[in-house]
Amino acid sequence: MTTTTLAPEIGRSSLPFVDNFHPDRPLEVNFYRPAEHGPDDPVVIVQHGMLRNGDDYRDFWIPAAEKHRILIAAPTFSNDYFPKAEAYNNGLVIGENGSVQRRENWLYAVPGRVFAALRQAGVTRRPQARLFGHSAGGQFAHRLLATQDHSPFEAVIAANPGWYTLPSLQRDFPEGLGRIGLDEAALARWFAYPMSIFAGDQDISTDDPNLPAQAEALAQGPTRYARAHFVYDFAKREAERLRLPFGWRLISVEGVGHDGAAMSRAAAAYWFEGRIPTADELAPEAALEP
Predict the structure, then answer these.
(1) Is 111 a domain residue?
(2) DSSP classification of residue 165
(3) Which of 36, 49, 1, 18 lies closest to 162 in space, CA to CA?
(4) Which domain holds residue 255?
């Protein structure tokens, strides 16, 4: 339970957020609240990439927010307080000494607590939010589903992650879910959730310096696009082998590379218009059109 409340003003705003389980690691939540947004309208929580630029990712969603009356909340995990992949992408699950941290201290619980703070403030009456994460935020989003209670989220999209945690208890975290206290019931819950993996079909660079290059990541394929197919096929086979319901979706987004703005527009159209825009609609110049 969080004691922080969040009441964003109309338009852009940024508010401090202190998570009770990380009082020495303050966050900032970047908001966009349309004038017409009411407490029963949608809420989308957006997880930024490795640049820790929650303000940019908030802004990527503003056109959709205005069109569909969406409240956008983009928590920013700064490098000062959440350095490197271990303290963001990998969720502070493993401590500096290699030990598994207490589950309530895992960073993946924070988006749910941000949403709880919005409900506590009366900003929303929605029972669930949607969660979108791109790149490092896509890593964060799918690991959140792997490790957390799903009840705060009605839908989750992980877009263009650099690599994936595999739904396997035989591989140690973050390559898999082993050694962190999860069981087969947790695995079954993750398989059953309708998680959407968005993969840009032009996210095919093999020499991007930000593309994870450790052995476990390379084993999933040479590019982010290939790795999305790898994890989906791996998960589907595992679910079938274990005779478990499987709800994941793999969605190729045509014409898009490693582009958080374009993927945000694709996700918004998918959720609120029931479609994936064409490559022409998602081109950078299209975003500048009135």
Answers:
(1) yes
(2) -
(3) 49
(4) 11-287
Per-residue pLDDT tens digits for 60-75:
999 999 999 999 999 9
Residue 252 CB-half CA count within 13 A: 10
Place of tokens 């940024």: 14
Stretch (H or E) spanning 279: helix 279-282
Write out residues in the chain with pLDDT < 70, as ranges: 1-3, 288-290
Number of domains in the chain: 1
**Looking at the domain assignment, is residue 1 inside a domain?**
no
State which amino acid sits at residue 264.
Answer: S
Structure confidence at residue 5 (pLDDT) = 79
In the prediction, which pLDDT does 273 show? Answer: 98
Backbone angles phi, psi at 60, to 5 degrees: -55, -30
Vertex 254: Cα angle to 249 and 256 (nearest 5): 105
Give me the half-sphere count of Cα atoms (radius 13 Å) on the Cβ side of residue 32.
23
β-bridge partners, 71: 43
Q: What is the CATH number of the domain that holds 67?
A: 3.40.50.1820
Query: Helix, strand, or coil here: 12?
Result: strand
